[in-house]
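lol forgot to send this yesterday, sorry. struct tokens for the thing we talked abt
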């Protein structure tokens, strides 16, 4: 990794906006478990049960289950999909289009080190967003639910984070095989949409349940992680696939003409 390039690429001001929204979304999800908002949600769920199933609602027996439903079921996959695409465009695709990457390659640094530095900068952004999610949850837990199972919330976050890293690696690889930034943006958005659509449809009864095999978000086994009965194996698979895609990105970048 190239330290000077890493700090140049890591844009704290831009990331603060994403961190703020991550904080608000996570805090809001926990706040919804307080009596008044929960009663309203239960009423709406009774009127539209199919819609709640579609968006991954599992129930409200405890705070981890509720958070798993309302935060990890749809909101965070969408949020991190947008971030992964936006960060890859900003950190990687645009520099390759406007000539900044060519100038770096012309320097004394190796291509391997240059690309890996970009990935670490993007990965740090993901980690900080995940930390923001956890801080938002903990703030509401300390105020309203001091007896909540914090370890369950942490296990879910770490398991989900492994899948987010995988999506980041996918965007990273797409940037290497795309002709320009526009193609990268379109391809990544299509893939993100397919992943999310398959996730939602897989929750419906019938043959659509098999669509879970077509989305990376199925690697997040939130139920087993919440109850401490497993789910780590799926997270490790996600991390292994991430490592493979980063290696494939390095290989593609080494052969790319800029």
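and heres what i got for the seq, position by position
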């Amino acid at each position: 990794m190239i330290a000077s390039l890493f700090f140049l690429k890591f844009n704290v001001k831009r990331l603060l906006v994403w961190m703020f929204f991550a904080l608000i979304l996570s805090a809001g999800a926990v706040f919804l478990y307080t009596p008044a908002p929960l009663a309203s949600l239960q009423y709406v769920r009774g009127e539209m049960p199919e819609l709640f199933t579609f968006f991954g609602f599992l129930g409200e027996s405890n705070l981890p289950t509720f958070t798993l439903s309302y935060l990890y079921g749809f909101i965070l996959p969408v949020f991190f999909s947008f971030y992964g695409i936006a960060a890859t465009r900003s950190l990687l695709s645009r520099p390759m289009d406007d000539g900044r990457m060519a100038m770096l390659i012309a320097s004394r640094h190796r291509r391997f080190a240059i690309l890996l530095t970009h990935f670490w900068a993007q990965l740090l952004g993901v980690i900080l967003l995940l930390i923001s999610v956890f801080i938002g949850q903990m703030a509401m837990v300390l105020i309203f639910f001091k007896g909540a199972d914090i370890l369950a919330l942490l296990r879910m976050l770490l398991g989900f984070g492994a899948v987010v890293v995988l999506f980041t690696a996918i965007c990273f690889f797409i940037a290497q095989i795309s002709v320009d930034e526009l193609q990268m943006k379109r391809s990544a958005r299509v893939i993100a949409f397919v992943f999310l659509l398959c996730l939602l449809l897989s929750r419906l009864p019938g043959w659509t349940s098999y669509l879970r095999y077509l989305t990376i978000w199925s690697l997040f086994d939130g139920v087993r992680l919440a109850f401490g009965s497993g789910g780590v194996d799926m997270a490790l698979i996600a991390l292994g696939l991430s490592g493979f895609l980063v290696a494939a990105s390095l290989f593609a970048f080494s052969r790319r003409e800029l």
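The CA atoms of residues 72 and 216 lie 13 Å apart. anyway ping me if u want another try
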